[in-house]
Amino acid sequence: MAEDQWLTPETLPQGALMAGKRGVVMGVANKDSIAWGIARVLASQGAEMAFTILGSMERRVRPLADTIGVKTLIPCEVTDDASMDAAFRTVEETFGTLDFLVHAIAFSDKNELKGSFVENTTRANFARSMDISAYSFVDVARRASKLMPNGGSLVTLTYLGSERTVPNYNVMGVAKAALEASTRYIARDLGPQKIRANAISAGAVRTLSLAGISGGRGMLSRGRTWAPMREDTSVESVGGCALWLLSDLGRSTTGEVIHVDAGFHIVGLPDEEPD
Ligand code: NAD
Questions:
Q1: Selection from 148, 134, 31 nearest residue 91 by Cα
Q2: 42 C-beta neighbours (distance < 10 Å), count
Q3: Does 232 contact ligand 1 (Cβ within 6 A)?
Q4: pLDDT digits over 186-208, tens only?
Q5: Is there an atom of ligand 1 within 6 Å of 205 CB?
Q6: How many CB atoms neighbour CB 170 within 10 A?
Q7: pTM flag (> 0.90)
Q8: 102 Cα: distance to centroid of ligand 1 (angstroms)
Q9: What b/e sequence results for 77-110 when a residue is b if at least 16 CB atoms lie within 10 Å of its CB, and e otherwise?
Q10: Is 159 a catalytic residue?
Q11: Fewer Cβ within 10 Å of end Cβ, the chain: N or C?
């Protein structure tokens, strides 16, 4: 099939895989955000959603949310307990119960996402990166699970830099390793309540977060040349994976880290450059 015939959230047949399901999507900052790509796919399948956003993002996010009928935008700073309390109170008032949650949040000081990991990593930013990028998923899982009496599904976003070293990814790689391990412990604890937790390990996607990593553009172009499929990771396919995991189609999968990266993670040694 030609590339221009691939399904997008706009051309995806409207379906009912998420009909009757209510959820929270955390981490839409703009039209490039992975969370936005996921939200559009979920909307095409009938999901009802609220977004949590950083306060300053509302101006940019509101017009996007309107296009898919998302009315509730909730300010939420994950490092602030009072903000998290208020956000989940609003979620409960809005929906009563929840069926799914998408966590697409990460942060680290960009001055430490370059050069030597050993020389450039400070105690303060190590702790902050872990807090925002890993601990927040644990905190969110605890709060969301209280609103999931009928079971549910949680998805977070990770990157290969957790498993292998990637230049400049540095402390974020360590935080993503903690996030993936946390996903397994969350899955174990909440499994008996029929709540699943999985991580999608996405290939490089051009977003604000990627722009904060020194050489982020190189992560994209090498992804394209080294990945077995010789193409970028499409945000639609990350959305497709989230749809599978968040719908009943994924009901036996939990504690997994699933790569959606055009196969990049399987390559040990790239093909030789042509002379
Ligand atoms: P993005 O910048 O669009 O999204 C990051 C989000 O995190 C933003 O909405 C931002 O507001 C939010 N955030 C940061 N600090 C926060 C805080 N203290 N409290 C609440 N929210 C906060 O970038 P993205 O690339 O869409 O990132 C989403 C997720 O995907 C991240 O976990 C990222 O690490 C992961 N990821 C990205 C790529 C990529 O190449 N872009 C690849 C794999 C995984």
A1: 148
A2: 27
A3: no
A4: 999 999 999 999 999 999 999 98
A5: yes
A6: 26
A7: yes
A8: 11
A9: bbeeeebbeebbebbeeebeebbbbbbbbbbbbe
A10: yes
A11: C
